[in-house]
Design goal:
This protein has 149 residues and is mostly helical. The protein contains 4 helices and 2 strands. The protein has one domain. The longest helix has 28 residues. 30% of the residues are buried.
């Protein structure tokens, strides 16, 4: 039985998959925001928010599935890791596109403490749900040498 609670390989796989999904979503968001007059009040904002939630779930699922001995913790950290890996990409997008907005200061900064905390909580939540789903799927058989039914 593997006694390691956090499987670094599993977390890295989940976070990397999440990052690979964030890149096209970010690109779509930039293109749509450039072409839509009132992006914040359009249907696109909600659609892209749902896409981000799906990314958190997928990243968590990949991490949890790769570490069935501790699916909750690995799913949560994999999803949070995807967000953390995405932050530098968002900074590059800001540097290229949003130079009129402050990165962390001003009237409409790209990053706020509340926004970052909120994303971390949401990512952890979707990662936990993914871990629960993995646990349910493998719950009919042994996990880590133990029956979890």
């Amino acid at each position: 039985m593997n006694t390691e609670v956090i499987n670094r390989g599993a977390v890295a796989r989940g976070a990397t998959i999440g990052l690979l999904l964030f890149v096209p979503i970010s690109a779509i968001g930039v293109v749509v925001a450039h072409n839509v007059h009132d992006f914040d009040h359009s249907g696109w904002a909600a659609l892209l928010a749902v896409a981000v939630f799906v990314v958190y779930f997928v990243a968590g699922y990949v991490a949890a599935r790769s570490a069935p001995d501790a699916p909750f913790s690995n799913g949560m950290i994999g999803a949070v890791g995807a967000f953390v890996l995405w932050i530098p990409i968002r900074i590059v997008i800001w540097a290229v596109r949003d130079t009129a907005r402050g990165l962390v200061t001003g009237s409409a900064p790209v990053f706020t403490a509340a926004g970052i905390l909120g994303q971390l909580v949401i990512a952890a939540g979707f990662g936990a749900v993914a871990g629960w789903l993995v646990l349910r799927r493998v719950g009919s058989g042994p996990v880590g040498g133990q029956d979890v039914r």
